[in-house]
Design goal:
The complex is a heterodimer of chains A (about 80) and B (about 350). Chain A is mainly α and about 80 residues long. Chain A is about 85% helix and about 0% strand. Chain B folds into 2 domains: about 110 residues, Sandwich (Immunoglobulin-like), CATH 2.60.40.10; about 190 residues. Chain B is elongated and about 90 Å long. The chains are: A mainly alpha (about 80), B alpha+beta (about 350).
């Protein structure tokens, strides 16, 4: 049981780290300098829109994951009572 | 279905906003130039990048103006792909109002496009003509690109990122709306003492803090690309930072009280008092301050006046409604969870 829990915790940390890395890459993508041609033509700046949408999506997923964990905790408590 | 219609509405509105907001093209506009400085008298070629020119782009006139002096280009060359080469030989003369920044205007397909503050013109010592003799005829520059349907405004600095109006701005609208409802449920608790109202108030405030956080993060990324800083010093941003801290204090206050009825009463009173302060910090204070980079506060004008054209408006209001409904849905899920938790804790 303890081993399974520690494995679970490790998996959770791995996903957290992966999510952090993905966010970092995204921010770097936004920061990347454009070519001279792109700057001259106004450098569309479409990637900011993508970044903003991804961040909002991450926020909603964060909410979902928290809800999920708290719900399963409540389910466990209820099963324990029964 | 009858009870959940507003959730379907939220999804439909957001699908409409995502489809329209991401696929509608930007209007034709000037993207940039290859130089910031021109010298007086010399004949020199300037490269002008044209964004979204379209297939039948015809250049009719190119001129630079500082409001007093206009200089029309001597010749123009359009490469058919996005680069316009215009040759200027401006003459400031010896005296008079030569200086300041010149804006660039391109007339194509019957309409003027503007690129504000494009160049400064350096005086040439060899130019000894009195500048009063050089004053050309005033052009009518007020005729802009028409309010064409199915294209978003093409604004200097913003460009494609104007679409963020549909994603970043509604986060704040949602936060204010959820906090208003939260404060309303808090007053309801104070009047009726039903723990149900307290649970609703708490769930709304929690989701509102999430939307506020999302507003901060998305705004930060947008600011980095347009204003050049992750967190520029701005009355609106400072107000939001303090406002977020006040609501984090609300959540801390809740977790520090163990008795549920005491917690409900104290946090309801705090909530009712903190909401007007929050509104004052993020809406009224930036309006009163001298300068702000945000549109609609300080000396700057709002999106409403220049940027929010009819095409953008077609998506902006549905976006606000859709995001508000989506986050209301999320807070209702949290409320239902808290209600079941409460029922299982108190038999």
């Amino acid at each position: 049981m303890a081993i399974r829990n520690s494995i679970k915790r490790l998996q959770f940390h791995a996903t957290k780290r992966a999510a952090g890395l993905a966010l970092l890459l995204l921010v770097q993508g936004v920061l990347n300098a454009s070519s001279a041609e792109e700057i001259l033509r106004g450098n569309g700046k479409y990637n900011v829109v993508a970044a903003v949408l991804i961040l909002i999506f991450c926020g909603i997923i964060f909410f979902l994951v928290r809800m999920d964990r708290r719900l399963s905790q409540l389910e466990k408590e209820k099963e324990g009572k029964l | 279905m009858r009870k959940n219609w507003w959730k379907y509405l939220a999804v439909l509105l957001l699908l409409y906003v995502l489809a329209g907001g991401l696929f509608t093209p930007l209007k034709t506009g000037i993207g940039g130039t290859d130089r910031l400085k021109i010298t007086s008298m010399d004949s020199q070629q300037v490269q002008i990048g044209i964004y979204n020119p379209g297939a039948d782009f015809r250049v009719e006139n190119v001129l630079i103006s500082n409001g007093n002096l206009n200089f029309t280009s001597l010749n123009n060359h359009w490469d058919g792909k996005g680069m316009l080469k215009a040759t200027f030989a401006p003459r400031l003369g010896k005296t008079g109002d030569g200086g300041g920044l010149f804006s660039l205007y391109v007339k194509a397909n019957g309409y003027w496009m503007a690129y504000p503050a494009a160049f400064s013109i350096e005086r040439n010592p060899a130019d000894t003509v009195s500048s009063n003799a050089l004053r050309p005829e005033q052009s009518n520059l007020s005729a802009g690109v028409p309010d064409a349907f199915r294209a978003f405004p093409n604004r200097q600095v913003l460009y494609e990122s104007i679409r963020n109006l549909l994603f970043h701005v509604p986060m704040w609208f949602t936060m204010i709306c959820l906090l208003l409802l939260s404060a309303w449920h808090a007053t309801r608790y104070l009047m009726k003492q039903h723990i149900d109202a307290d649970l609703r108030s708490e769930s709304l405030a929690r989701v509102a803090v999430l939307t506020g956080f999302l507003g901060c993060v998305t705004g930060s990324v947008w600011a980095r690309v347009t204003w050049g800083l992750w967190w520029p010093s701005d009355p609106k941003l400072n107000g939001v930072a303090v406002g977020m801290l006040m609501y984090l204090a609300y959540l801390l206050l809740r977790s520090s009280l163990n008795d549920p009825y005491q917690r409900a009463r104290v946090s309801a009173v705090y909530n009712v008092f903190v909401f007007p302060v929050f509104i004052a910090l993020i809406v009224i204070m930036p309006k009163l301050s001298d300068a702000s980079v945000h549109p609609g506060s300080g000396g700057t004008v709002g999106f409403n006046k220049y940027d929010l054209d009819n095409t953008l408006r077609m998506y902006f209001y549905p976006a606000v409604a859709g995001w508000i409904l989506l986050f209301l849905w999320m807070s209702s899920l949290l409320y239902r969870f808290k209600k079941i938790q409460w029922q299982s804790e108190t038999p």
